[in-house]
């Protein structure tokens, strides 16, 4: 009954409810404790008087919150970014081997040498019913460290939908580049063999002209230079993939006997439900077929364990910091003891003293938490920027529900713990404290 | 509407230190409402101890501390705090103000924990008191910019802001020079007399002694029999 109701709620409502439940202890105790009192002037005074120590506490709390928030936000951003970068790659066929290696090479353009799929096999794949697009992805060359990929115009259209600038390639001397490639339309470049920087790698004596530019995709393909697959074969002195009477029209159909091979093939099925049938069909002795999305999920699942370790670490720092803060608050109540005793000597109710101590601690906790969220977001943004710069996978960290849940739990826990020093202050002897 | 102070009646009072040493023994003492009493005696005699006991800040080992019908010795802690809050004003030897607050905030400190309905009256009264004590124009300034005599006057304003029928003071002029002490005594006594308040002050100040209705001598934790009207 409750379960059914819960699952019928939209996700945001579930997340909101969890956040509220986690915050409930804080939200319930605060009005009970603070009711009827004006704590502002004394609170401000105490904070000002103990500004240095208060700042240390705030920074301590902020650091622990920042670590927790940054870790979870960053990890999620990485997952989402890598999944988004693989969005266009429905089904990949490659020679049997490691799916992860093939995925890293074909989707994320990480340099690696894969065995090739031959012409017969490619022809079979391309001719299979339900295959709407079978595009070779032939990598291996580079320009100034950026990957040059041989494929077809259909593949470019599949990846980019509409070009940001220029047109598709129409001859083996033309190229379409990613949004992040520092070449203008009309510029020429010479491919190098392998993946080193230009002078270290062996240069080919061909040049391509840039005729088109793809829009930004937030994937490593933003750095890629796509050329006709026939050109890649030609540069390496291989057959051109077509028969002797080829008129120069690029792309399929290819002649199986004059097809030098491709390390990977991107498949788009004509309908969604056909994908699984195709994957089964292409899982043979000569080929393997996999969904990058699935491989990624498996990777993330493996990393999930790491994630758990990280969250335990984050939680542990938070518990340690909480303990340190609590110990600090105990010290602080001694510091405040004389003024609290004075208030009691003047007749202030015990609950007022309790509320003052608790809200003093609460101010430090809330200020530290807010600062921590901000620092965590900044740290996650910086980390994301570094990852994006390194991998070209666009990673953007945001604060989301998991961070809010973490913070809500932290605030509730620490505010509840702050009841302890508050309770201890009202048990202190007034007269002895007045003489301090 | 000033409240009439309750009469004070001590019976069979004994205050001991936490170690069990007798600090104060008072078989009998009565103080009439609306009178000013000064307690004097050598250092360590037990004067402050008596005053703290009268304020309910020290619980006696035995005996009664009756303010009217209320026996502080038998009251639970929260009720004593309420009694202090509603019926007592207290001036300490060294003002004991909150340095980080303004003069006005110090004087109206009780408004922070008073019931909402009482806050406005309390603030108005503390402001009027500061004005009467010659500090009205500087109410917004922080206490740490005031002289010793001025601080002690702020402390008097704080003690009287709730218009308590009873005013207790522990050596209120001890840290002041002659001129400041005289001014404080004059202010304190005129404010107390105007309100018909009971004043009990520990002091050796000749001006305060001269203004008192009665002087009590305490020595070695006991009242000297010659304690009487001056
Ligand atoms: N908590 C305590 N434990 C032990 N002894 C105490 C305690 N409080 C006060 N005394 C002792 O009780 C005696 C009376 O102290 P009290 O402060 O009342 O003296 P006093 O008359 O106010 O002296 P002074 O003029 O110096 O202020 C002193 O001997 C003091 O040391
Ligand atoms: Mg004393």
Automatic annotation (TrEMBL), chain A:
The keyword Transmembrane applies. The keyword Membrane applies. The chain crosses the membrane at residues 12-34, 55-73, 309-332, 352-384, 404-426. InterPro entries: ABC-4/HrtB_transporter (IPR051125). Keywords: Membrane, Transmembrane, Transmembrane helix. PANTHER family: ABC TRANSPORTER PERMEASE (PTHR43738:SF2), ABC TRANSPORTER, MEMBRANE PROTEIN (PTHR43738). This is Putative ABC transport system permease protein. It comes from Poseidonocella sedimentorum. The lineage of its organism: Bacteria, Pseudomonadati, Pseudomonadota, Alphaproteobacteria, Rhodobacterales.
TrEMBL record, chain B:
The keyword Nucleotide-binding applies. Keywords: ATP-binding, Nucleotide-binding, Transport. The keyword Transport applies. Residues 8-230 form the ABC transporter domain. Pfam families: ABC_tran (PF00005). GO terms for cellular component: plasma membrane. One of its GO terms (molecular function) is transmembrane transporter activity. SMART domains: AAA. Belongs to the ABC transporter superfamily. This is Putative ABC transport system ATP-binding protein. The lineage of its organism: Bacteria, Pseudomonadati, Pseudomonadota, Alphaproteobacteria, Rhodobacterales.
């Amino acid at each position: 009954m409750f379960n059914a109701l819960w699952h019928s709620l939209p996700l945001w409502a579930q997340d909101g409810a969890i956040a509220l439940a986690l915050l409930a202890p804080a939200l319930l105790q605060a009005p009970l404790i603070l009711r009827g009192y004006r704590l502002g002037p004394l609170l401000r005074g105490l904070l000002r008087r103990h500004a240095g120590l208060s700042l240390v506490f705030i920074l301590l709390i902020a650091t622990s919150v920042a670590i927790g928030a940054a870790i979870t936000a960053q990890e999620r951003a990485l997952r989402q970014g890598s999944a988004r970068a693989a969005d266009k790659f429905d089904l990949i066929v490659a020679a049997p081997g490691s799916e992860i290696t093939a995925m890293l090479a074909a989707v994320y353009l990480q340099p690696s040498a894969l065995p090739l799929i031959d012409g017969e096999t490619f022809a079979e794949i391309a001719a299979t019913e339900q295959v709407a697009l079978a595009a070779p992805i032939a990598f291996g060359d580079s320009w100034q460290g950026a990957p040059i990929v041989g494929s077809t115009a259909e593949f470019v259209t599949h990846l980019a939908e509409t070009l940001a600038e220029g047109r598709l390639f129409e001859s083996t001397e033309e190229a379409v580049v990613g949004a992040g490639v520092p070449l203008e339309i009309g510029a020429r470049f010479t491919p190098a063999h392998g993946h080193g920087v230009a002078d270290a790698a062996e240069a080919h004596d061909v040049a391509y002209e840039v005729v088109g530019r793809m829009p930004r995709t937030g994937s490593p393909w933003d750095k890629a230079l796509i050329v006709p697959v026939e050109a890649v074969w030609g540069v390496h002195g291989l057959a051109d993939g077509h028969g002797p009477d080829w008129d120069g029209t690029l792309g399929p159909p290819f002649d199986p006997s004059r097809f030098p091979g491709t390390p990977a093939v991107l498949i788009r099925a004509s309908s969604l439900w056909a994908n699984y049938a195709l994957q089964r069909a292409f899982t043979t002795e000569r080929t393997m077929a996999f969904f990058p999305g699935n491989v990624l999920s498996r990777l993330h699942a493996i990393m999930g364990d790491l994630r758990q370790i990280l969250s335990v670490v984050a939680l542990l720092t938070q518990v340690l910091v909480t303990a340190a803060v609590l110990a600090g608050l105990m010290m602080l109540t001694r510091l405040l003891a004389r003024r609290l005793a004075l208030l009691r000597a003047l007749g202030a109710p015990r609950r007022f003293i309790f509320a003052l101590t608790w809200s003093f601690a609460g101010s430090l906790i809330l200020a530290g938490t807010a600062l921590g969220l901000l620092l965590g977001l900044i740290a996650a943004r910086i980390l994301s920027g570094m990852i994006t710069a390194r991998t070209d996978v666009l990673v953007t960290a945001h604060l989301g529900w998991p961070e809010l849940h973490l913070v809500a739990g932290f605030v509730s826990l620490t505010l509840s713990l702050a009841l302890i020093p508050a309770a201890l202050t009202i048990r202190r002897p007034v007269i002895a404290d007045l003489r301090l | 509407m000033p409240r009439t102070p309750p009469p004070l009646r001590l019976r069979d009072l004994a205050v001991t230190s936490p170690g069990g040493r007798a600090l104060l023994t008072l078989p009998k003492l009565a103080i009439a409402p609306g009178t000013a009493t000064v307690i004097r005696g050598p250092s360590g005699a037990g004067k402050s101890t008596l005053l703290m006991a009268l304020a309910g800040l020290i619980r006696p080992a035995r005996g009664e501390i009756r303010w009217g019908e209320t026996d502080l010795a038998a009251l639970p802690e929260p009720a004593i705090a309420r009694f202090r809050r509603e019926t007592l004003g207290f001036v300490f030897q060294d003002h004991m103000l909150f340095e980080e607050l303004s003069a006005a905030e110090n004087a109206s400190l009780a408004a922070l924990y008073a019931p909402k309905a009482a806050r406005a009256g309390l603030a108005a009264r503390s402001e009027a008191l500061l004005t009467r004590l010659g500090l009205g124009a500087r109410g917004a300034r922080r206490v740490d910019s005031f002289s010793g005599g001025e601080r002690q006057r702020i402390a008097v304003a704080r003690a009287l802001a709730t218009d308590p029928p009873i005013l207790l003071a522990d050596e209120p002029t001890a840290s002041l020079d002659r001129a400041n002490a005289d001014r404080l005594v004059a202010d304190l006594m005129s404010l107390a007399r105007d309100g018909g308040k009971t004043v009990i002050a520990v002091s050796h100040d000749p001006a305060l002694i001269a203004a008192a209705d009665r002087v009590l001598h305490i020595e070695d934790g006991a009242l000297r029999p010659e304690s009487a009207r001056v």
